[in-house]
Specification:
Shape: globular
Largest sheet: 7 strands, mixed
Number of domains: 1
Strand order of the largest sheet: 3-2-1-4-5-7-6
Radius of gyration: 18 Å
Bound molecules: S-adenosylmethionine
CATH architecture: 3-Layer(aba) Sandwich
Pfam family, one: Methyltransf_11
CATH topology: Rossmann fold
Protein name: Type 11 methyltransferase
Family: Belongs to the methyltransferase superfamily.
GO molecular function: rRNA (adenine-N6,N6-)-dimethyltransferase activity
Oligomer: single chain
CATH superfamily: Vaccinia Virus protein VP39
Helix content: 40-55%
Organism: Catellatospora bangladeshensis
Amino acid sequence: MGQDERVLASSFGAAATAYAEHRPDYAPDAVRWALAAAPGPRVLDLGAGTGKLSGTLAALGADVVAVEPDPAMLAELRRALPSVRALAGSAEAIPLPDAYVDAVLAGNAMHWFDMAVAGPEIARVLAPGGILAGLWNVLDDRVGWIAGLERVSGGEAIGPRDTFRSWRAATASLHLPRAGGAARFGSPEQAEFAHGQLRTAESLVATLGTRAGMLTMPGEAREAALGRIRAFLAQTPETADGEFALPMLTGVLRVRQR
Ligand SMILES: C[S@@+](CC[C@H](N)C(=O)[O-])C[C@H]1O[C@@H](n2cnc3c(N)ncnc32)[C@H](O)[C@@H]1O
């Protein structure tokens, strides 16, 4: 991972509270699909952040352990989900014994992992037949106004993995084969599930402000991007007044350990 990627990957902690308040959780059907046929109930939420995915997993009855490298994100997770076991660690150094979990899930986080190191490490903590799945909440840019929002936001505000048209290609480029090759994991499968988040124009601006591209922008460029987004939402009929459902999909990329 280069210096720029490292800066992006470690940008979230400064906004941990806003992150917890404004980022969406995950479509339960997507989480169920990710876990289908896992050999048991124990799930590692890797890069767990403030616990958005851990919360959905716990609600579905999984036995969750969360691992997160950023101290501020981890503190927020422990505050929000005191019953979830939460550990400091990273995808490249997972603080768990061999064959300990039946599934490893990562919500909007797998693209930050150095899969050449993280792949063998994930394989180590997975029980035989265990599942590795990445989940991404993406904006559904097949909806007209979302495509408009993407245009005014610019590439940094809404990155290529954040919209439907590009997430499949972007996640495929994670090269899960690098995680240990066909010898370690079976073929990747992908699926998308409808999801939504109730927002107002102002709370959507706050949500977009927690994206890595925004968090790492110089102050002036960030304010200019947020200003363009605010103006766009004010003049768009679907978003100008009151609450609306932000059209999203939870995309899942899943492989099974051989
Ligand atoms: C966009 S946030 C997603 C957080 C949470 N999973 C969610 O769904 O809201 C990405 C998270 O990945 C974490 N992260 C970055 N690099 C990581 C790594 N190498 N190993 C594990 N987690 C990492 C960040 O600290 C951050 O909490």
